[in-house]
Amino acid sequence: MEYRILNFKASADIDGAAVNIEPKDLPFDIKRIYYIYDTERYAVRGRHAHHNLKQAIICVSGACDFILDDGKDRVTVHLDNPTQALYIENNIWREFTNFTEDCVVMVLANEHYNSEDYIRNYNDFLDAIKLKNK
Ligand code: T46
Fold first, then answer.
1. Quick one: which atom of ligand 1 is closest to the CA of 57?
2. What is the pTM (predicted TM-score) of this model?
3. Who lines ligand 1 at CB under 6 A?
């Protein structure tokens, strides 16, 4: 399964904490930032893969679970640390759920939003991976 955790520099004192993310800390150039909040605890978001997208996914507040599937294996990554990002590239089916009330997920992406980049059907996803691995 191709994913990894990126660690960012954080500073904390009695007045609070701050995380600093610089271009050198990411394996891509950022073209888009979006964030997700106000989610129902057991809502399941995602349920798709992308043809061409790199993303660093940061739970800046609260916690949630990311389920990653590469067509062979399925892993669950629990995100609850604002100093870390889940880095994923193409060909990973993702679902995320189990949101705490205060959950805010911020995503840094290497491409602009493009609805045609989505693979929304799981069988189409499996077919796309098979074609890539031929
Ligand atoms: C992923 C997780 C973490 C836009 O208009 N612009 C955007 O940049 C995005 C991401 C979405 N939208 C619109 C498109 C849909 O009408 O917002 C609606 C929900 O989008 P989507 O189904 O992409 O949202 P999530 O939360 O299921 O998934 C997103 C990313 O697509 C996905 O790659 O990893 O966040």
1. 3
2. 0.96
3. 32, 34, 36, 45-46, 50, 55, 57, 94, 105, 107, 113
